[in-house]
Amino acid sequence: MKLSIIIPVFNEEKTIKEVLKKIDSLKIYSVEKEIIVVDDGSTDASKNKMNSIKVKGMKSFFHKKNQGKGAAVRTGIEHATGDYILIQDADLEYNPDDIKELLLPINIGVATVVYGTRLNRLPNFLKDERTFRFFIHYMGNKFLSLLTSMLYGQWITDMETGYKLIPRSMLSGITLHARSFDFEPEITAKILKKGVKIFEVPITTNPRGYDEGKKLNTVRDGMIALWTLIKYKFVS
């Protein structure tokens, strides 16, 4: 299997080098890695950090101006040649070691699409939901995942997860319009509308604070996700 790992980057000078090192050192039996890094118009030293490390099988692309995560992911998909595509955020919230767990259901033939779920659990007030703002973020994600389940007729616990493992052949048959964080609800809605079962695998994350560069706005992006889920229930 050839796995295309797409890494969208926007102002991640503090973490991008470490993420690339972790992905480069990841050994997966019988899997060839293709690493596609898309810098989405960063204004910090992210580009220099990316160019300062040599990673086998890495392709780099650069947007002249910031267009949003969805646009960066779409650029990565356009240049991917793997059998499967995985999105890896550049902020170190997700642990690349979990990629092996996501691939397991594919390898044993029980899944076609795999999501890494962070939310198949109660709130963790000592870590992930350590502040009121993070608790609201947790509840918002739970609500959006419940809404997804109700609208599209398949139980899913973490629609907003960044870890999505999808066949490239399936993505080639889906027209994506997302430019920002609406990528997550759009791709999920369109996969479910195809009648494809999404297999979820528990993962752990290390959420960074907003003072550390977290970009998601719970209210604004939550409302966009809500509208996106409803919209694609009725339009293609």
Order of helices and strands: EHEHEHEHEHEHHEH
**Molecular shape:** globular
Order of strands, widest sheet: 3-2-1-4-6-5-7
Q: What is the first-to-last residue Cα distance?
A: 30 Å
Number of strands: 7
Largest sheet: 7 strands, mixed
Sheet/helix structural class: alpha/beta
Q: Report the β-strand fraction as a percent range.
A: 15-25%
Q: Approximately how much helix is present in the residues?
A: 25-40%
Return the CATH class: Alpha Beta
Mean pLDDT: 92
Structure, briefly:
By secondary structure, the chain is of the alpha/beta class.
Characterise this structure.
With 236 residues, the chain is of the alpha/beta class. The chain has one domain (2-234): Spore Coat Polysaccharide Biosynthesis Protein SpsA, Chain A, CATH 3.90.550.10. The chain has helices at 16-25, 46-51, 69-79, 99-107, 132-152, 168-171, 183-193, 218-234, and strands at 2-9, 32-40, 58-63, 84-87, 113-117, 164-167, 198-202. Strands 3-2-1-4-6-5-7 form a seven-stranded mixed β-sheet, sandwiched between helices. Helix 2 (46-51) links the parallel strand 2 and strand 3 (58-63). Helix 7 (183-193) runs parallel beside helix 8. It is globular, with a radius of gyration of 17 Å.
